[in-house]
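[audit] Reproducing an earlier prediction to check determinism. Same input, same settings, fresh worker. If the tokens differ from the archived copy the diff job will pick it up downstream; this log only records the rerun itself.
[audit] input (295 residues):
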Amino acid sequence: MAQILDGKELAEAVRADVTDEVDAWTDRGHRPPCLRVVLIGSNPASEAYVRGKERDARQAGIDSKTLRFDDDITEADLLDVVDRLNEDAGVDGILVQLPLPDHIDDRSVIDAIDPAKDVDGFHPENLGRLLIGAPSFIPATPFGIVEMLRRSEIEIEGMRAVIVGRSNIVGKPLAALLMQRDANATVTVCHSRTRDLAAHTREADLVVAAVGHANFITADMVKQGAVVIDVGINRVDDASREKGYRLIGDVDFDAVRDKASWITPVPGGVGLMTRAMLLKNTMNAARHNAETAVA
């Protein structure tokens, strides 16, 4: 029976560390780190996620505010909002909550964010710096996954890691992060065109599922003793719940737990760490921007 990688407990530890950093930062006479979140429309999942971010930031002593706009905002007007935030010296971090409405090109908006304020780590400059092992803002979900492993004293070095999913948000940056010299995993990235996916996952010491399909990773796809990280969040109908649905991951949790050594739950796993690492990126942005202003 696998041990649970408790995202709530681990995220609380990260938030406590960030709170200490913020306290030390302001004690030295600096203003609190400043985060601005841009939210378009009223997507319930995005609304809930942003509320969680605001609460986390407030508790850590970070100045966080969400700028809300109707979903009919034009791409040009949204780019103007980003430009104003880029130019505001009092703003350390900018986060544009995804997904955006269909009429707005995500890539154009992400590319417009000042890389020095890109606390999501999605700008091409930050992703490129991650690839070559240079300091950068690391996308929060991959950052959180590696932090979970390290804080749980799970040895990454030498692991054979299989990532199922090749998104720019999770799969690709996580592969780069696990290959860094301070991690030293051997990484395979699988996707919808991978032949005999199970043959890859059954050889893995670490399986990361990030495909967006409920219960996609089954027990027969996981070797005994593997570490299993579930990034997926899928809504399935459940008449027994007040809301009429429940959230499950990409991993068949109950079955896979009998084979894995460690496993993340959904909810209560990676998502909480994603929010915690955003705080860390924001603190790092404040420090970097202060140093740049002095220089």
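[audit] rerun output stored. Observation attached for the diff report: The two ends are 54 Å apart (CA to CA).
[audit] end
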